[in-house]
Write a structure and sequence with these properties.
- The complex is a heterodimer.
- By secondary structure, chain A is an alpha/beta fold.
- Chain A folds into 3 domains: 193 residues, FAD/NAD(P)-binding domain (3-Layer(bba) Sandwich), CATH 3.50.50.60; 138 residues, FAD/NAD(P)-binding domain; 68 residues, BFD-like [2Fe-2S]-binding domain (Arc Repressor Mutant, subunit A, Orthogonal Bundle), CATH 1.10.10.
- Chain A has 20 helices and 22 strands.
- The longest helix of chain A is centred in the last third of the chain and has 19 residues.
- The radius of gyration of chain A is 23 Å and the shape is globular.
- The N terminus of chain A is likely disordered.
- The mean pLDDT of chain B is 93.
- The N and C termini of chain B lie far apart (29 Å).
- Chain B is α/β, with parallel strands linked by helices.
- The chains are: A alpha/beta, B alpha/beta.
- Chains A and B meet through β8, α5 and β9 of A and β1, α2 and β5 of B.
């Protein structure tokens, strides 16, 4: 690992094969760069186009045309000559201290593939790690039978599975309506949709409506939502929610207009939007900022996706939520900038090639502010009551986090030391946003001031055996034996 | 509880794609392409482990490798993410009780 002149394996590594990663890898490789596309899943597509090459759901009207668009990204990738490594988990991106004699400072990627760890040396990294569902901490959200709506959609795409018994969907945001619509097309059972979109959000979102009216997706989204509302029981203005059952979900209890109601349920699908999957960027040292409109942390990037770490860029929802079509264009812009930084194209050539992608990106982002504002989750679902588990791994409640704040804990990293909150295998992915907001609310300051977990590689658990099997130089061995 | 869409579960299709494996020693059937977590749900298993902290039952939650709630023992190796591993013929899947055991 400390060889004086490390051999470079690839010019560019792209992490994640959703729309941003697919588009970035295809473009960069088509311009002659050597590119490797690393992805955890067995097939390309990310979560949005999950299983697009092999889904058993062949009736195209079930998953809808937006899903099938994903297949169009695969041809260009195949033709580009990019190397695709599926089933590969990236657990670190770092720059070794030694500079190569030619002045290049390549990056090293730690990865696991087929049960073995390996290091890869590359000149540039494009992180396209996408989004994950925003945590939806309600009492009982850890019960078996409670899943994310995104999880249910993965089950539909990969396996053609739909809920069988009494099914309740709850929350807010475009994905909830899309899944309900897909279930309708598939003939799946939904007993009720509990809409938690706060009434006040409409007032805040209204001034942003003109922008949304220019959105190319407006028509599609409205039709889909109206379809669902016509055919299903939609219960609006839900202000409180809990899942009940002993060892498995039995019922969903919700509050509407101050009155509690109970629905029997075998499956509860929760959703309140998505947030950037930023663990790898954070652990790589990329600066991040609090986005008040999307109420999440997002890595800081310039107009090309370049982060604060030289040679590391971000594209797609991992840099802030913009949706699949925006991700695709952002991937192309990041690829052009990487080619420029590697000296393969000039600045002018980069800017010229970028113009259509930038226009398409702007189009794709039109109306986003309206959606962000309308679907900002209610405070009750972001800053839960004391008895609600916020850290699923270590089973830490919101009350325990508040107690730690009263003892002087000022941010998530201290909460981690005090409580083990965020210390489990998910590494804060399912509690980070909540812990930030709970501490901020308790201290009466902005989440920006409270901060986020400082994450460390490996960002996915790997076994000691895997690590120990890494190739070692004589210098590495000496370093251990001489001390 | 999850069920397969009827268009997929046609007799010819189901036979061609069927994979036999075991859940806690009992024979079970899945479809090629299923993750272990999906295969468990398709077989009516919503709870796949008890947590090491309180012993509470958990089941698959995110299906995309981030929540670690679908941890199971696969072919004798504990703490595998069920949603990240594809089910294979003859695979032995075991629900997990608490922590991963030494040597497993």
């Amino acid at each position: 690992m400390s060889a004086p002149n490390p051999k470079v394996d690839f010019d560019i590594a792209v992490v994640g094969s959703g729309p941003a990663g697919l588009a970035a890898a295809a473009l960069a490789a088509s311009k002659g760069a050597s590119v490797v596309l690393l992805d955890e899943q067995a097939e390309p597509g990310g979560q949005i186009y999950r299983a697009v090459t092999e889904t058993p759901v062949r009736d195209r009207k079930v998953l809808g045309p937006d899903y099938w668009h994903g297949a169009e990204l695969l041809g260009p990738l195949r033709d580009s000559g990019a190397v695709h490594w599926p089933g590969t988990t990236v657990w670190s991106v770092a720059r070794p201290r030694e500079d190569a004699p030619d002045g290049h400072r390549p990056l090293q990627i730690g990865l696991s593939r087929n049960g073995a760890a390996a290091m890869l040396t590359v000149r540039h990294v494009i992180l396209a790690t996408g989004a994950l569902e925003r945590p939806f901490p309600i009492p009982g959200w850890t019960l078996p039978g409670v899943l994310g709506a995104g999880a249910a959609q993965v089950l539909l795409k990969t396996s053609g599975l739909v809920p069988a018994g009494a099914t309740v969907m709850a929350g807010s945001g475009p994905l909830l309506w899309l899944l309900a619509w897909q279930y309708l097309q598939a003939g799946a059972r939904i007993d009720a949709i509990l809409d938690t979109t706060p009434k006040e959000n409409w007032r805040a979102a209204l001034p942003l409506l003109p922008g949304f009216l220019r959105s190319p997706y407006l028509g599609k989204g409205m039709k889909l939502m109206l379809d669902v509302r016509r055919k299903l029981t939609v219960i609006g203005n839900v202000t409180a929610l809990r899942a009940e059952g002993d060892g498995a979900l039995k019922s969903v209890v919700y509050t509407r207009n101050g009155t509690e109601h109970r629905l029997p349920a075998d499956t509860l699908l929760l959703h309140q939007g998505v947030v950037p999957n930023l663990n790898l960027a954070n652990a790589t040292g990329c600066a991040q900022r609090w986005d008040g409109q999307q109420r999440c942390w997002r890595p800081t990037t310039d107009a090309w996706g370049a982060t604060s770490v030289e040679g590391v860029s971000l594209a797609g929802d991992g840099a802030g939520i913009g949706g699949a079509r925006a991700a695709e264009e952002a991937g192309r812009l990041a690829a052009l900038d990487a080619l420029h930084r590697l000296g393969r194209i000039g600045r002018e050539q980069r800017d010229q090639a970028a113009a259509p992608f930038r226009a398409a990106l702007d189009r794709a982002l039109t109306g986003r502010a309206f959606l962000d504002t309308l679907y900002t989750p209610a405070e009750a679902f972001r800053v839960p009551a004391d008895d609600t588990i916020v850290c699923r791994c270590e089973e830490i409640t919101a009350g325990a986090v508040r107690e730690a704040v009263r003892l002087g804990c000022s941010g998530p990293n201290q909460a981690k030391s005090f409580l083990r909150c965020g210390m489990g295998p998910c590494q804060g992915r399912l509690c980070g946003p909540t812990v930030t907001e709970v501490i901020a609310a308790e201290r009466g300051v902005s989440p920006a001031e409270v901060g986020y977990y400082r994450l460390r590689p490996p960002v996915k658990p790997i076994t000691l055996a895997e690590l120990a099997a890494l190739p070692k130089t004589d210098a590495d061995i000496d370093a251990v034996f001489k001390h | 509880m999850f069920r397969r869409l009827p268009e997929i579960e046609t007799a010819a299709n189901a036979a061609a794609q069927a994979i036999s494996f075991t859940i806690d020693g009992r024979p079970a059937s899945a479809r090629a392409g299923d993750s272990v977590a999906a295969a468990l749900l398709a077989n009516g298993i919503t709870a796949c482990r008890n947590t090491p902290v309180s012993g509470a039952a958990r089941g698959p939650y995110c299906m995309m490798g981030v929540c670690f709630d679908c941890l199971v023992t696969i072919d004798g190796t504990g703490n595998r993410q069920g949603c990240q591993v594809r089910v294979a013929p003859g695979m032995a899947v075991e629900t997990q009780n608490g922590k991963r055991e030494v040597e497993r």
